[in-house]
Amino acid sequence: xxxxxxxxxxxxxxxxxxxxxxxxxxxxxxxxxxxxxxxxxxxxxxxxxxxxxxxxxxxxxxxxxxxxxxxxxxxxxxxxxxxxxxxxxxxxxxxxxxxxxxxxxxxxxxxxxxxxxxxxxxxxxxxxxxxxxxxxxxxxxxxxxxxxxxxxxxxxxxxxxxxxxxxxxxxxxxxxxxxxxxxxxxxxxxxxxxxxxxxxxxxxxxxxxxxxxxxxxxxxxxxxxxxxxxxxxxxxxxxxxxxxxxxxxxxxxxxxxxxxxxxxxxxxxxxxxxxxxxxxxxxxxxxxxxxxxxxxxxxxxxxxxxxxxxxxxxxxxxxxxxxxxxxxxxxxxxxxxxxxxxxxxxxxxxxxxxxxxxxxxxxxxxxxxxxxxxxxxxxxxxxxxxxxxxxxxxxxxxxxxxxxxxxxxxxxxxxxxxxxxxxxxxxxxxxxxxxxxxxxxxxxxxxx
Length: 448
Known about the structure:
Layout: E1 6-10, E2 13-14, E3 20-24, E4 27-31, E5 39-48, E6 51-61, H1 87-104, E7 114-115, E8 126-131, E9 137-140, E10 148-150, H2 159-174, E11 189-196, E12 203-209, H3 217-224, E13 230-235, E14 247-253, E15 257-261, E16 264-268, H4 278-292, E17 299-303, H5 309-313, E18 320-325, H6 328-340, E19 346-350, H7 357-361, E20 365-368, H8 377-386, E21 390-395, H9 398-408, E22 412-420, E23 430-437
Parallel strand pairs: 4-6, 7-22, 12-13, 17-18, 17-20, 18-19, 20-21
Antiparallel strand pairs: 1-5, 2-3, 3-4, 5-6, 8-9, 8-11, 9-10, 11-12, 13-14, 15-16, 21-23, 22-23
């Protein structure tokens, strides 16, 4: 087939990116916004990693699970790849993806059910809305870095967040703020990052731009302040398409965003990682707490601790907690959060996860919540060398966990694995796994 040619595609499975897949000419062929049991007419766009990538032109035979989506952008927007499918079917597809990965990794455990999310809309507490070259403000079409959708509505954050978006879109035209062009590497306005405290009513807006002063500052504050308790100007001086702003200037309101989870109050810096679904983050905490209750640890090590979420919430279940995080700003926030919650038996350190803290603390339980890439090989080496009694591995990428367990399984038994739907209407799913050291675990990496 030539690029641009159309064909009929019968969908029989989904891949890890949530694309429906079938076969064309003996090769795997995939298209966004489709699921098994559908037949579609689709146009060939590209070839990636041995797969043929198609764009749906017409649904010929819809799946019985296909429903009318709430959002008019569903079926085009990368924010909700599965919103046009029944939620029960979404959960089953996620269970199948996780179980297939576990089986491929030789892990005998299977997920019986994915814990569903009680809130299917307005569930996120952070969104990074990109600015397109023609002044679009919204998200991109999946798999297309230069296809911007100008969203005048979005069901991921909140109705007031949409009002904030629309106010900023008006400012770009009025002041004007020149949109960033990611192909030509010029322009000014790049992202509008919105974070919300779902249980505090607070909202933080960060206007991410190229390296230049913010014009018409007071006009921007007047327009956005009705919808944001905090406004930052963030500068990304590089050509890299990132919403992260290395330089930040507070121009209105509170310095930090506040959120409350598990009876604790957390301050969040604009650049800090925090669990994106507040309600499901509490379910995740409860799961981790249950795993650790089997053995009350003397010393609990919280690796990749961020602003201290797990360590602070679980401090009452251990004699001592040590949090390790490479991001120095996050460690400062973690210290503030421990103090504001009256948690005294916890210490934080800005260091690599494989640092010498192992030699000083000798933890008997460890929580790891790494980024999507999983654990660094040196971290796995430290875990296998020191062999704490229990490891609770929290993963936003089940394939990374499966890969890491190929090594961790040499010294640990997987007692339990649970899956939680932190991200409705997407293929993403969170895992919480409970690992216990094997009796007579072999010496690995020179440790006894």
